[in-house]
Amino acid sequence: MLKFNVLLQHKNVENSPPTAVGSENAIAHVFAEMLNMTIEYIVDDKEWGIIYDNWTGDGILGHVAIDKADMGYGALYTWAHEYQFLDLSKPVVRTGITCLVPAPRLADGWLIPFFPFSFQMWLWFSVTFVLLSLATIGITAYVTKHHLEYKHHNSKGKRKGTINYRVIFNQSMIKLTQIFLIQSLSFRGRAIDTTFRYLFPIFLYSLIITATYSSGLAAVMTLPRYIGTIDTVWNLAKSDLRWGATQDAWIYSILEEKRPQYKTLLNKFVATSKENLLGFAKTNRFAFSIERLPSGQFAIGNYITEDIVKRLRLMHEDLYWEYCVFMVRKSSPLLEPLDTLILKLNEAGLILFWEKEAVGTHMDMRVQKVVAFYRASQVKQADSPVVKLMWVHVEGAFGILFFGLLFSFVCFIIEVVYKRKEYFPRKPYLV
Known about the structure:
15 strands; 16 helices; eleven-stranded mixed beta sheet
């Protein structure tokens, strides 16, 4: 009878490794039985470990490289650096690496008036409004100039007067604001009225923009809006959150990435102890890497408890995905029969069955259910009950009203101070 050493992670076994449950461990047992071998486990607290260029190392990877173990497994992926020292088996499963991130928070009511348009839309609207203002002022000044020239021509040499650009600016801005607020305009034959006859498309443009804003505002006030949502790799990279796990092995697959979002994520990754991760979890300012398993379950560290996971949400997008493999020595005679066995077990669906069994044995199922619940609620939002209109829904509108009245009052006081002689003459008017 043959005997081979197997190195696996300490977190997957307790007291008696041969009785441990897990898809990879079950494959190792079937493989040993198929070749009439016995298993001797080597448990290493370094977990994945590392292989150095001088063919030394620690953990699963290092012990297989220095021939202390014949086979290593435990969430090992198709890493390019390790392939220089070890042979990789056929893929056992495809696993996705994603993150549990802090839940988004409900947006402040003060921001509701700005939500109907995106930042880009507000930017384009501002640019358009400025261009329309310049066009209106320019055309009004041109019409006023020709109107004064016409009066001068008919007044037989009398003084033709000058153009008051301040008045033109004020009239133009007031008229444009009235149009975008869907207010009626009065035409009195002035130069500004003539200008808007030439700029009739402004009315159609303002109608479309105003209708779009109104419908968007109705949608925003009907459905709650959240800020700080992190669903994609870009969202996580642009946020101020750090992310991490217990070892650097979580980033081995993206070390050579050249894309900017992954370079940013590499700089934000933190490898630390479970105690520190538990402390980070309580701050609600940290993201935790987890595995998305083919069975629909998740490999979640035990430092994420039920009370903590309720404040976290699962990202829609994976950071990356990988194939989970066994690793053996270079040119090992065990590789070929191991590959054949893995393919047969995948065809039979046993690996998926063992994976579900392992999750049920080693993972906190309440945590699994919380993650699954929020994942389902992200795909299809549950029906929200109808609620009464509250202050939080309209405080943005009241804020605009308050600051508008305050600004108007300050302008009125300034105008009274500078125009005091006109408003309060020393000599009374004669009746």
